[in-house]
Amino acid sequence: MDRPNYITPAGYAALRSEYEQLFATERPALVDTIAWAAGNGDRSENGDYIYGRKRLREIDRRLGWLSRRMKAAKVVDPARQEDRSRAWFGASVTIVDEDDALRTLTLVGDDEADAGQGRIGWNAPLARALRGAAVGDLRRVELPAGTREYEVVAIAYPPAAG
């Protein structure tokens, strides 16, 4: 990887949880099913065996991907951000576009991005444009639909613990 894989503590916990669920629960149950199906004789027409092997490959691929992402992860807690006047990793940024449409976006790791929930990946074009922005800044972004200009109207971070 040429750049760090920034991720919030909650995002890392979600990756870890998925890994543990696949590795400790789903994979062993599937191995048992495949062993049972293999014991039934002819494997060429055995749907449980064929599907089980296919699903096992999918799980192993996903486990490998999750393992690599967790190894490369750099966990950053947005609540510890010292410069809260600018948009950095973990910030919730409220922006307004040329049509006066107001949106609030949270800058999160690429692995935890969910546009429907307003969480955009740190390396997305809009997130890159918003990095380091302060309230009142105008930012121009090249999007597939064309160039858009946004004004930053608010920046918030999670409260610091303790």
UniProtKB/TrEMBL annotation:
Q: Which Gene3D superfamilies match?
A: Transcription elongation factor, GreA/GreB, C-terminal domain, Transcription elongation factor, GreA/GreB, N-terminal domain
Residue ranges constituting the Transcription elongation factor GreA/GreB N-terminal domain according to the UniProt record: 5-75
Tell me the GO BP annotations in alphabetical order. DNA-templated transcription elongation; regulation of DNA-templated transcription elongation
Q: Which UniProt keywords apply?
A: DNA-binding, Elongation factor, Protein biosynthesis, Transcription, Transcription regulation
* Domain Transcription elongation factor GreA/GreB C-terminal: start-end pairs: 86-157
InterPro entries from the entry?
GreA/GreB_C_sf, Tscrpt_elong_fac_GreA/B, Tscrpt_elong_fac_GreA/B_C, Tscrpt_elong_fac_GreA/B_fam, Tscrpt_elong_fac_GreA/B_N, Tscrpt_elong_fac_GreA/B_N_sf, Tscrpt_elong_fac_GreB
Q: One MF term from GO for this chain? A: translation elongation factor activity
| UniProt xrefs under HAMAP family | GreA_GreB, GreB
Q: What family is it from?
A: Belongs to the GreA/GreB family. GreB subfamily.
Please describe what this protein does: Necessary for efficient RNA polymerase transcription elongation past template-encoded arresting sites. The arresting sites in DNA have the property of trapping a certain fraction of elongating RNA polymerases that pass through, resulting in locked ternary complexes. Cleavage of the nascent transcript by cleavage factors such as GreA or GreB allows the resumption of elongation from the new 3'terminus. GreB releases sequences of up to 9 nucleotides in length.
The protein's name: Transcription elongation factor GreB
Taxonomic classification: Bacteria, Pseudomonadati, Pseudomonadota, Alphaproteobacteria, Sphingomonadales
